[in-house]
Amino acid sequence: MVLLALVLACGALVADAVAAAGSGTAATPDRARYDVDLRSDADGSHWTGRQRVSFRNASDRSLHEVYLRLWGNGEDGCGASGASSPVVVSGVRGGTADPPAVDCTVLRIALPKPLAHGERASVAFDVSVTVPDRNARFGREGAFRFLGNALPVLAVHDAKGWHLDPYVAVGESFYALAGDFRVRLDHPSDLAVPATGRTKTRPGGPGRTVTLSVAERVRDFAWAAGPFRTAHRTTPGGVRVNSYWAPGTPAAGVRLTRTEAVAAVDRFGREFGRYPYGEIDLVMTSGFGGGMEYPGLVLLGTTEEGSAIVHELAHQWWYGIVGNDEYASPWLDESFAQYANFRFYGLETRDCWPDVHWPDDGTVLTASMDYWSRHPGAYHLVYTAGPCALADLERALGADTMARLLKRYARDHWYGVSTTEDFKRAAQSMTAADLGPFWKSHRIQ
C-alpha cells in the first residue's frame, strides 16, 4: 500500500507539472527569503529548528501551491527499515503539505488561497537534518560534517511547468532561483562552522557559539562543522578568502589551494564580473572526493598537489551567479567552469579532441542528466568535450571577442538563468559568420 501510494503521488506530481506548463510563463516563485534557525548536537551530526520561506509570484497566473526540494534525501530516499529520511519537514504553517514524493525529495504545499501575480506569501515549518554516514557533499569525514543541499529550497515553475526532477548522484539535479538567506546556527564552541554568506559569531549558551550568516542573491545555502584549523586572507581585489582544513590535510596542498584561490577569485572577477558576495569559504579535507561548489563555499579533497579549487571557484559564476537548470543542461555550468579552469592554467586545447570519445552518433554535449545518469561512463564529456568546444569557439571568434562575449553574457544573466539557446544567440550576435555548422559539428543542440 505504501509503495502504491508513492507511485500514485509521483504520477500526480508529474500530471500537475504538465498541466501547469505554458509558454511565456515567468520563472516563479521568485524573490525568496529564507529565515532559518537551527541548533546542533554535540558534534554537528544533527540539527533541528525552524525555517520560514517567503516568496513572490512572478508568473502571470495564480499560484495554488509551491514545492520544496529536499535534496538531502536524494541518496537515502524515504529511509529504510523504519529509519527517517535525513531531512524531515513537519509542522507546516501557511499551507497544507502532501506526503513527500519523488523519493522524498519533493514536498508539495497547497496554499490557503491562490497567490496572484506580484503578491507575496510565506510558509514555515520545523526541520530536522541528520548528516548521513558517508563521505559526500551531504555527509561526514571523521569528525567533520558537510551540509551541502541540507536545507529545503523552493522548486521552480517556468514555461515548462514545475521542475520536479529526480536526484542524481553523478552530477547535479539542482535548479533554483536566486534568493536571500538569513541563517542562525547554534553549535558547540569547539566546532568551526564555515557557511555560505557573510558570517559573524557571537556567544551562545554555556559552551556554545552562534554563527550568523547573511547571504543575498544566492541559489542555495551550505555549511560545514568540525574542529577545523583556520586562516584568512584578502585578495588584492578585496574578497576575503576563509580557509578551513582538517588536521591531516597535506600542508603543501592547503598552501597551494589558498594561493590559487586568491588568484582565481580576482581573475574570474575581471573576466566575468566582480565577485559579489564579499567572502568565500574553502573547506579542505584529505578524503573528500574531488570538489563540490555552493554559493560562497566549496568542499575540496586536498592532496599534496592541491585541489580542484580553480574549477570549483569558476562555479561561483557558472551556476551560482549565472544560473542554469543543472538537470536539463549540465554543460552550461560544468563545461564553462572547466573552460575557465583551462584558461587559468594556460592548458593547451588544440589537441584535446583525440581524448574525446562519444558513445554513439546520437550523443550530444547538451544532453540532460536524464541521459548522463543512464550513461554515467560518458558523463566526463561535459568536462572534456565541453571545454574543448568552448576553446574552439574562442578560436573561431577570436580571443578578444570571446572575452567580450563571456563578460557580456554574464552581465546579461547576472543572478538570472541561462539556457543553451541564450548562449547560442549571444555568440551568434558577436560574428557575421553563421555558427550553425559550428554548433552541429560540436554536438551543441
Automatic annotation (TrEMBL):
<dbReference type="InterPro" id="IPR034015">
    <property type="entry name" value="M1_LTA4H"/>
</dbReference>
<keyword id="KW-0732">Signal</keyword>
<feature type="signal peptide">
    <location>
        <begin position="1"/>
        <end position="20"/>
    </location>
</feature>
<dbReference type="InterPro" id="IPR027268">
    <property type="entry name" value="Peptidase_M4/M1_CTD_sf"/>
</dbReference>
<dbReference type="InterPro" id="IPR014782">
    <property type="entry name" value="Peptidase_M1_dom"/>
</dbReference>
<dbReference type="Pfam" id="PF01433">
    <property type="entry name" value="Peptidase_M1"/>
</dbReference>
<feature type="domain" description="Peptidase M1 membrane alanine aminopeptidase">
    <location>
        <begin position="275"/>
        <end position="346"/>
    </location>
</feature>
<protein>
    <submittedName>
        <fullName>M1 family metallopeptidase</fullName>
    </submittedName>
</protein>
